[in-house]
């Protein structure tokens, strides 16, 4: 059976890590599979949101250590090429025009926690555990660091990177690494319902809202930003999608995009 399962349910794409015997630790082969299926979901006009989840007891143990050890036999240039596979995947998850949601249960260690951080939001079981464990192996959380720091801030990232502390879902929630925690038996239902809530919204408005949050987070509040945001809402008010949404609301009808 494949190490990655891909399913389309309505407007939702489910990507499921299925390397259960290795606790969903990823090697180059699995990373390439995820990248290919992620690209396919992004290109599919029917798909409005993407969920990354896992079979087995754990979300992901991070990088496959046997694979990492094997890569030590190669030179730095070859290792750079290999590391860029994970780097490109993380970037795609983070910059995808469609919302990406990590559904985490069990353990998310090292790069596994990084995958969750790269997604737009993470929904976790209350029993989930997280750890940036790289320094215990003489390594560093390099490729995942931009997304972890973006999610939890520099000081928290320093602390967890240097200590390799194992922390629970409640702490992950307080750090903003996780957005919602639910009992594990309810996690799948909660995730599907949450993803469907996103899918029910205007797809182009969702795409722009995702980009908007990233854009304004890196800008100071000045006249230029005020004008940019005012211009953006002015454009959406007269757009086809905006008109459909406003008309449907006033008529107490379901907007057309929900029926596509």
From TrEMBL:
InterPro entries: ClpP/crotonase-like_dom_sf, Enoyl-CoA_hydra/iso, Enoyl-CoA_hydra_C, Enoyl-CoA_Hydratase/Isomerase. GO terms for biological process: isoprenoid catabolic process. Its EC number is 4.2.1.17. Keywords: Lyase. Transmembrane segments: none annotated. It holds the Pfam family ECH_1. GO terms for molecular function: enoyl-CoA hydratase activity. Belongs to the enoyl-CoA hydratase/isomerase family. This is Enoyl-CoA hydratase. It comes from Legionella cincinnatiensis.
């Amino acid at each position: 059976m494949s190490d990655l399962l891909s399913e389309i349910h309505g407007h939702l794409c489910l990507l499921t890590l299925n390397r259960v015997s290795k606790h969903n630790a990823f090697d180059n082969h699995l990373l390439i599979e995820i990248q290919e299926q992620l690209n396919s979901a992004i290109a599919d006009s029917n798909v409005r949101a993407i969920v990354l989840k896992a079979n087995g007891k754990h979300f992901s143990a991070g990088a496959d250590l046997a694979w990492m050890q094997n890569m030590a036999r190669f030179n730095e240039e070859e290792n750079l090429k290999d590391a860029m596979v994970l780097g490109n995947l993380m970037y795609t998850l983070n910059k995808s025009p469609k919302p990406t949601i990590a559904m985490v249960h069990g353990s998310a260690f090292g790069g596994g926690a990084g995958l969750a951080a790269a997604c737009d939001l993470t929904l976790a079981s209350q029993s989930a555990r997280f750890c940036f464990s790289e320094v215990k192996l003489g390594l560093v959380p390099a490729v995942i660091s931009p997304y972890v720091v973006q999610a939890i801030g520099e000081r928290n990232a320093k602390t967890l990177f240097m200590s390799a502390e194992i922390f629970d879902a409640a702490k992950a929630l307080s750090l903003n690494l996780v957005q919602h925690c639910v009992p594990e038996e309810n996690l799948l239902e909660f995730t599907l319902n949450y993803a469907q809530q996103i899918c029910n919204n205007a797809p182009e408005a969702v795409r722009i809202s995702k980009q908007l949050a990233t854009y304004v987070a890196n800008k100071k509040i000045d006249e230029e930003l005020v004008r940019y945001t005012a211009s953006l809402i002015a454009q959406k008010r007269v757009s086809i999608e905006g008109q459909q949404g406003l008309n449907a609301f006033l008529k107490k009808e379901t907007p057309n995009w929900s029926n596509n």
